[in-house]
Fold this protein.
Amino acid sequence: MKARVTVTLKTGVLDPQGKAIEGALRSLGITGIAGVRQGKFFEVEVDAADEAAAEATVKAACDRLLANTVVENYRVEIAR
Amino acid sequence: MKAAVVVFPGSNRERDVARALRLSGAEVTIVWHTETELPAGTDLAVLPGGFSYGDYLRCGAIAGRAHAMDAVRAHAARGGLVLGICNGFQILCESGLLPGVLMRNVNRRFICHRQTLRVERTDTAFTRAYARHQVIDVCVAHGEGNYFADPETLARIEGEGRVAFRYCDAAGGLTVEANRNGSLNAIAGIYSEARNVLGLMPHPENFVEGLVGGTDGRGLFESLAKAA
């Protein structure tokens, strides 16, 4: 089973990289972008009996390593 | 004083910190990260600076979960002393031994310069050789030293007097210019609740001999040498 994990910075946490990208987009002349927040994306191959078990495993992986929950949120999607 | 310096793939300041410790009279052992125990009789565990695991995922994230960190955690729980410098501070935050996180510097640059710090308290095993609010001249070298914690955690750290050092100007003033990485409350280093664990971004081990520019870092190692 495949899981897709998206890790993003929590609202209110300063994202200097996102700000730099925003500036670069502006300098390219791409208008209409109000803001950029940079995050991380993981594709995880899970060996699990069912979707619920896969989700539990990947959530544990997020809590313990993939995300730092002090400043980051994560979202897990199990591919059907 | 018996010190164990824990080395991870990508650590690169272990020899400097070992030298600083030895100059102050400590006996130093270098410990590889796969070890599950610290040498018998270890008083102080040190996590040196560097780029453990190439800063993959997040600075200190992978090292923070290494086997040796279980031993460091157990040592800290017994009241043993732990010192994390630069990447070592990031590892301490990632391992849960210290609260908060070190984010990308607010100016997005790797900063590498001399830095003055204000010593916040002198009743700890790490800072007895300094005077309260003494301004010390050391160095910083990091890309991710911007200390962040949620408001509740920050209030707790401040309320419990757990800030060890703050970035300041030469006169001890906490100016915006002196806090170049953008840390909350100009925090350069913090203690654990029991004050036996210290993490700091600056490098006191750089300035222990006049020949290389300064000796203000020596006080930290001398304090530690006298602590056990």
Observations:
- The radius of gyration of chain B is 16 Å.
- Residues 67-77 of chain B form the longest helix (11 residues).
- Chain B touches chain A through 20 residues (CB under 8 Å).
